[in-house]
Amino acid sequence: MKKQFVESLTAGSRVEDTFVLAEKRLARKKDGADYLTLQLSDRTGSLSAVAWDNVEKLGSVAAAGDFVRITGSVGEYRGALQIIVKEMTVEDPSSVAAADFLPATGQDVDQMFDRLVRMFQTMETPPLRDLLTAFFADADFVERFKKAPAAKMMHHAYIGGLLEHCLSMALLADRIARHYGGVDRDRLLAGVVLHDVGKVREFDYQHRIDYSDEGRLVGHIAIGLEMLDEKIRLVDGFPEEERRLLKHMIVSHHGAMEYGSPEPPKTVEAVLLHYIDEIDSKVNGIREFIAAQGAEDAWTPYHRVLGRHFYRGSGGK
Amino acid sequence: MKKQFVESLTAGSRVEDTFVLAEKRLARKKDGADYLTLQLSDRTGSLSAVAWDNVEKLGSVAAAGDFVRITGSVGEYRGALQIIVKEMTVEDPSSVAAADFLPATGQDVDQMFDRLVRMFQTMETPPLRDLLTAFFADADFVERFKKAPAAKMMHHAYIGGLLEHCLSMALLADRIARHYGGVDRDRLLAGVVLHDVGKVREFDYQHRIDYSDEGRLVGHIAIGLEMLDEKIRLVDGFPEEERRLLKHMIVSHHGAMEYGSPEPPKTVEAVLLHYIDEIDSKVNGIREFIAAQGAEDAWTPYHRVLGRHFYRGSGGK
Amino acid sequence: MKKQFVESLTAGSRVEDTFVLAEKRLARKKDGADYLTLQLSDRTGSLSAVAWDNVEKLGSVAAAGDFVRITGSVGEYRGALQIIVKEMTVEDPSSVAAADFLPATGQDVDQMFDRLVRMFQTMETPPLRDLLTAFFADADFVERFKKAPAAKMMHHAYIGGLLEHCLSMALLADRIARHYGGVDRDRLLAGVVLHDVGKVREFDYQHRIDYSDEGRLVGHIAIGLEMLDEKIRLVDGFPEEERRLLKHMIVSHHGAMEYGSPEPPKTVEAVLLHYIDEIDSKVNGIREFIAAQGAEDAWTPYHRVLGRHFYRGSGGK
Amino acid sequence: MKKQFVESLTAGSRVEDTFVLAEKRLARKKDGADYLTLQLSDRTGSLSAVAWDNVEKLGSVAAAGDFVRITGSVGEYRGALQIIVKEMTVEDPSSVAAADFLPATGQDVDQMFDRLVRMFQTMETPPLRDLLTAFFADADFVERFKKAPAAKMMHHAYIGGLLEHCLSMALLADRIARHYGGVDRDRLLAGVVLHDVGKVREFDYQHRIDYSDEGRLVGHIAIGLEMLDEKIRLVDGFPEEERRLLKHMIVSHHGAMEYGSPEPPKTVEAVLLHYIDEIDSKVNGIREFIAAQGAEDAWTPYHRVLGRHFYRGSGGK
Amino acid sequence: MKKQFVESLTAGSRVEDTFVLAEKRLARKKDGADYLTLQLSDRTGSLSAVAWDNVEKLGSVAAAGDFVRITGSVGEYRGALQIIVKEMTVEDPSSVAAADFLPATGQDVDQMFDRLVRMFQTMETPPLRDLLTAFFADADFVERFKKAPAAKMMHHAYIGGLLEHCLSMALLADRIARHYGGVDRDRLLAGVVLHDVGKVREFDYQHRIDYSDEGRLVGHIAIGLEMLDEKIRLVDGFPEEERRLLKHMIVSHHGAMEYGSPEPPKTVEAVLLHYIDEIDSKVNGIREFIAAQGAEDAWTPYHRVLGRHFYRGSGGK
Amino acid sequence: MKKQFVESLTAGSRVEDTFVLAEKRLARKKDGADYLTLQLSDRTGSLSAVAWDNVEKLGSVAAAGDFVRITGSVGEYRGALQIIVKEMTVEDPSSVAAADFLPATGQDVDQMFDRLVRMFQTMETPPLRDLLTAFFADADFVERFKKAPAAKMMHHAYIGGLLEHCLSMALLADRIARHYGGVDRDRLLAGVVLHDVGKVREFDYQHRIDYSDEGRLVGHIAIGLEMLDEKIRLVDGFPEEERRLLKHMIVSHHGAMEYGSPEPPKTVEAVLLHYIDEIDSKVNGIREFIAAQGAEDAWTPYHRVLGRHFYRGSGGK
Do C263 and A258 lie within an 8 Å CB cutoff? Predict the structure, then answer.
C-alpha cells in the first residue's frame, strides 16, 4: 500500500514507493554524459525527478504510463523539490491500488451504481428497460463505467466522474420530467445514461486521465452510437423508431452543430437532455473551481474557459 | 359581450360587434375619391376592412389601438373575406372584456398567482420574503403582473404568460435547488420572480401585444432594476450584499454578454436561474410551435429562429 | 409511358397522365361545400390542381407521395395554370418510370458505377479492398447508392447525384494522392466512398427528394458509421487501427465542429478528404446555379447561401 | 511625503517609506520555518519583498490593500531586486498622498472639472441642466468622479482617467453636434457624462485599480442607471420621455448586444455617443500603448486585445 | 425636358415622355401570340408596362439600360397602374437630363466640390497637396467624382452621394484632428478623399445605380489603390513612406479583416479614418431611413441590416 | 564559409564565426556598469550572448539585422548556453552565404523554377503567356521570387518556400483543371503564380524572416495588385476583361471577407484557386508540424492555430 504521496514529500527525505511514470526523457549533460529526466505522479500531484547513474538501464526499464517503484531521495533544484532516482522497477498494475494514483469521486461508487440501477428498474417501457439491462449485465462495461471520468478537465474530471454525472443527471431528469407533463420519462432517462456512454472508451484512465487514440479520432458520440448498436442487437424486436430517437439523443446532446453535434435536438426529450447535461456539468465544474481556491477571497481567479471570475461571497458583509 | 369573432365570419353575413382597430389608412381611388382601409382584430385573428362612405367622419372617429364597434357586412375581395364598414364608433375599454381581444393563457390566473404567493411564504430569509411581500402588496403591480405576456413571440406570448412562466420556473427551481445541496433556494426563487419583472412595462398588452416605447428604449433588464430599487426602499435594512446579488441575477440572466447581459452569471444561483429560464422558455415555445401545426405530419414546418424542424413522432411506425 | 409533362401543359388542353401527388388539402368554399386543392409534380416541375366534384372519394383515394393517374383539364386561375381534376386513381409504383418524376444526373449511371468499381479494384490494401467489395456485393445497397442524391439542394441534388459526386471525388483524390507523395491513396479512396454513404438512407428519393425521418433525426454521419460497422463485421480480421481511421474520416469530413463534425480532421488523408468534398460540391453547385439562369447576363442573381453573385463572363467585351 | 519609489530602488540601499501592500502570503521554508512573501507597490511599479523574522507579528499587522510603512533593505534574488522587510506598520490612509501610489492623469484635475462644468452651464434644456447640477452639487460624487479611472486596462486606466475621458468626449461631442444639424446637443452632452457614471462605483481605486465587488456583480451600466434615478428624483417634474432617452443612452452605449448592451442604439444621439466613446477610448489606448514602448522601433510589440502591431513611423526613411 | 414622372401618372392619362428601360422581357400569351413586358423608371419610381402590338419591332429597338421615349397610355392591371406602350424609340443620352432619372443629393454639387477643393488647398504637406491636385486636375475623374453615389443602398445612395460623404467626412476629420493634438491632419484629410475614390468605377450610375462588372469583381479598395498609383506617378519624388501610409488607409478603412479589409488600421490616422467613415455613413443612413417613413409613428419599421427599429420621438409626450 | 552553427556549440568551446545579430540591448549591472545582451542566430537556431567589455564600442558597431563576425567563447548561465562576446565586427552581406543563416527549402530552387517556367510556356492564351513572360524576364523579381518564403509561420516558412508553394499549386491546378472540363486552365495557372506574388515584398528575408514595413501596412494582396499593373503595362493590348479576372483572383484568394479578401471568389477559377491554396498550405503546414516532433508518439502536441492534435499513427498497433 502506497504511503508516500507527492504532496507530502519534503527535502532531504528518502523515497521508496510507487508512482506513475508520467514522462521520461533522455538528456545530455554539458560534459557529454547522459542522464534521465522523469515526471512522477500520484493522485496528489506531480514532481520532476532525475537519474544520474545507471542511465542506460533505467531508461529502458519502463515506459511512460507505467507504474514504477522508485528508490531515491528528495533534493532541491532551483527552489523546487526534485527526486533523485537511484533505482526504478516496473510494478505490476494488479499489485497497486489505482485509487492512489488518480483523483477520484468523493462518493461511494457502488452505492451510486446501485441507485442508478434501481432507477432504471422503475422504467415502464420494456424495450428500453431491456436495453439498459443489456448494458448493466455486461460486466466489462460496468467495470469501465464505474471508473471512467466524464471529462479530462472542466467537470467530473476524476475516476467515477462519469457515473456521478449520470446519476446526478438521472435524478434531475426524473424531477424535470415530473414537472412537465407529457415528457417521455423513460426515453429521457435512457438518454441520460446513453448520451455519454462512449466516454468509457474515449478516455484512458488507468494511470492518468487523457484521451485515448480512439477518443481523439472518433469521439464519444460515434463510440456511443456503436456501443448502442451492439446492445440493441441483444434485444429482440427493439423498435426502429425508439432506436432512432435514442441515436438522436446521443447525436444531438451538445445542443447545436457548432458544438460538434451533427444534428441539433429536435424532440422535447432531446432538448431537455441537452440542458440537464449543461446544468450538471456547469454546476459541478464551477463548484470544483471555487473549492480548489483558498477560502479567503470573495472572488475566484479568472476562469479562462468560462471567461469570468466566480463569486463565493463575502461572508456577512 | 362579444359574439362575433374573426375566425367565424363568413361571406355575406352582417357584422355588428366590437373589434380592435389594429391599423387605419386613408387611400385614394383612381377616380380621386378617398376611402379607408382598416385592419380589425380580436383574439381569434385579424381581417381587412374597407369603408367607402362617410370616409371623413369615420377616419377621424378612432385611432389605431382603439376598441371600435363596427356595423357592416362581410364581402370578398381577391379571394379573401373583407368587411365593408358602414359605421364605426369608439368603445370605452371599460365596457369590453379584454380577454376577447388577446390570446391568453389556458390556465387559471388567480390559481397560478395564489400558488406562487404560497411558495414565497415558505421562504426563510426575512429580507427576501419582505421584498416579495412589497411587490405582491402593490395592487397595481399585481394587476399588471397577472396580465403581462413573457414575450412578443417565441414563448408564453399571451396574456398571463409571464405569470405562467414565473410559476413554472419557481416550481422547477424548487426541485433543482433540492437536488443540489448548498444552493440558496430563497435567493434563487427571488431571482425567478425578479429577473423578468421589467416585462410588465416592457410590453403593451392592452389591445395587442407589442413592445412599449420604454420597452424598446430601455429593455426589461433596466426596467426590472429600477422596480427592484423602488421596492427595496420599502424594506428597512435590506442588506446591501443581497441587493447586489439580486441585481446580479437580473443583469446576468441572459447568460452571456452576446445575448445582451451586461455581466455573465457569476454565482451558482445565477447560473441556475439562466438555465431554468432557458428550459422553461424553450419547452413552452417548442410545444406551442408543435401544437400550432396540424397533427398529421411527423414533422413541424421549419422553425426559422431555432433553425430546425421538430419531430412530433410517427405514431406506431 | 408518361407523355404529358408539367412544363408543357397549356390552358385548355385535356390531361390524362400520371403525376406525383405532392400535396393534398381539403378546403371549404364560402357556400359551405368542400373541395380539394392538390399539388401535382413530375421531373419538369409542379402545378396546383383543384377538384370540385367527388371530393369525398377523391380525397380518400391517395396520399401525399403517391403516384396518381389524373383525368381532367387545364384552366387558369389568377393568371396561372391550374389543373381541374375529374378523376384520380393510384398508380402502382412498379408501373411507372421513376426517372419521369424526379430530376436525374445527365450521366450514365451504370458506366459511372463500373468506373468507380474498377478504381477500387486497383486498391492494394487487402482489408480496404475487401471492405469495399462487401459494400458493392450488397445488391440492395448498390441499388440505393445508384439512385441517391447527394443533397436536397445546393449540389448534386438529383437522382444519381451521390454516385456522380463520389466518382468525381475519387478521380480527383487519385490525382491529388499522386501529387503528394506519402498520402495513403487506398485509405483516401475508401474515405471518399464511405464519407457520404449514409446519404442512401438520409434521403427519401422515391417520388420526391427530401430528408427521411432517420435522416433528420440521426444524419448521414451517424448512419454511415452504422453501415460501416455492418460491413466490417463481414471482413475477417479487419484491423482496428484501420477501422478507427475510416470512422475518423466519416466523422470529420465536414472539416470543423461548427459544421457538425464531432471531431476535426487529424490526419493528412482526412484533411484532403474534406477539401476534395468541398471542391467537388462547390464546383458542381456553382455550375448548376449558373446554368439554371438564362445566358444573357454576365452575372447570376444573388446566391443566398453563398452570399454573392457569380460571374459567367461578358463574352468578348 | 513619500521619497522612495519602486522604480528608483537599487541593490544595497536602505528602505524606509510607505507602499501599498498589494499581496501577502505565508510560506514555509524547507527547514519548517515560516516566512512572509509580500508584493509592495506604488505609482511607479511593484516589487517582491520577503520577511524572515517576526513573521507571526508582521503577518497579522496588515491586510492586502493597506498602506504600510516598511523598514528594511534592498537585496537581490535570482537576478531581481527584492526588499528584505524588517518592520512593517499600517499607515493611516489620511496621512498619505494617494497620488503617490497609483498612476494618475497627466492633466490638472480641477481645471478639467471646471471646464466640464462650464460646458454644462451652456446647456439650454432646463431639466438636463438641473440634472447635471444635481450630480455636480453632490460633493461625495464629485470627489469620486475626479478620481475614478475609466478602465482597469486598455485606456484611461489611471486616477482621473474617467474625468479626462468624459471631458475629451464632451469636447468632441460638441464639435460633432455642430457638424450635423438637428442633433440634440444637450442630450448628447448629458449622455457623455452619464454613460460611464457608474464607473465611480464599478472600480476600487483607493490603493490599486481593480473592479469592486459591486462592479463585478452588477457592472457600470446598472450602477449608472441607479445613480441616474437617484438624481432624477431631486429634479422636480423631470420629463419621462427625457428619462427614457438618457437611460437608453446608458443602456446602449456599448453599441450592440454582443458587447453587453441590453439594447443597441436607436436614436441618432445614442449612435453618436457610442462612436465618440469608441474613438476617444481607442485613441487614448493606442497612444498610451505606443508611448509605453521605446522609441527605437518603427513598430510596437503585438497588441493582444486589438490583435495587431501599431506603426509609429520610421522617421525620414 | 421631362414632364411626366412615374409618381404622378394616373389611370387613363396619355403618356408621351422619356424613361429608363430598366427591364425588357418577351412573353407568350396563351393563344400563342408574343408580347413584351417592360419596366420603365425615372427618379421618382418604377412602373410595369406592356406592348401588345409591333412586338417584334419594339423588342429589338432598345436594350435594358437605354433611355426610351414612350408613347402610350396608362391602364390598370390587377389593381396596379400599367403603361400600355404604343411606340418606343431610343433617346440619345446626351439629349436627356440624367438628374431626371436617378435620385440625387439635395445639395449643390459644385458648391460642395469647391468647398472640398478649398480644404485641400490648406494642406501644408507639399506631396499630399500635389497628389490631390493631380486628382482634381483630371477632368474625367472630377466629372465622375461629382456624380458617383457612395453606395447602392444604406447611405448616400444617390447621384452626388460620394462627394457629399467625402465633404462631410473632411469637415469632421478637420474638427477631430484639431481636437487630438499630434494627429497628422493632412494625411487624414488625404485619406478621407482617397479611401473611397475607387467607387467612381465600382458603380454604374448612368441610368441606374448598381455595381459595375469591375466593381463586383475587384471592389473599390483595389480600384482605389490602382487610381492612387496612377496619380502618384504624376508627382515627382512622392515619398515612399507617404505612399505606403495612404495605401494603408485605403486598405484598412473597413476597420477589420472580417469586413473585407486586408489589414486592420495600424496608425492613429487610419483608426480615425475608419471611425469617421462609420459615423458619417451611419448618421446619413439612419436619417434617410427615418425620413423615408411617414412622420406619424414614434418608431420606424424594422431595419433589417442594422437589426432594430429607430426612434423618431413621440413629440411632447 | 561558416563552420560553427548554433545547434552544435557546446560549453567551453571557442567561437569564431559569423552570425545574424537578431537583437541587441544595452543593460546596466547593479554596480552601475553597462553591458550588452545580444541574440545571435543562424539557420540552425538562436542563442543569447553577452558582452562585458568594450561595451560602448561593440554597442555602436552593428545594428539588429546585420551579419556580425563574433570572437568569444561559450559559457553557461542558468542552465543554458550563452556566448561571451569578446569582439564583434560587421560582415559584408556579399561575403556570406545567406543559406547558412535562414532555413531553406529542401528542394533545388533552380529546378523548381525551370519546371514552373516550362509549365507557363504551355499556356495557349497569348496575353497571359506574355504577362508571365514579363514577370520572368524581370531579373530582380526572379531573384526575389526564388528566395521569398510563403509565410512567416504555419507553412512554407523558409527561403524558397513561395516558389515551392507556387510550383506545387501549379501542378495541382493542372490536374484539377483537367478533371473538370470547361475550366480555363491558363487563367487558373496565371492566378496560381500571381495570387501570392506580393509576398516577395511583404516579407523581409535577408537575414531573418519577418514582415516588412510595407508588408504590415499594405499586405500582399495590395502589393500584388500593384506588381500586376506594372507588368500589364508592358504587354500591348492586354485585355481589360482578363485584367479584371486576374485582379479578382488576387483579391478573392483568401476565400471570404472574414479572412481579409475584399471580395469572395465569384468565378469557378477563383473558387478553385482558393481551395488549391488551402490544400497546399495545409498539407505542407501539417506535415512540417508532424515532422518537427519526435517520431515516438502517435500524436503531435496541440497545434494552437489549427486547434487540435494531429495523428501520425501508431505503427502496427
Answer: no
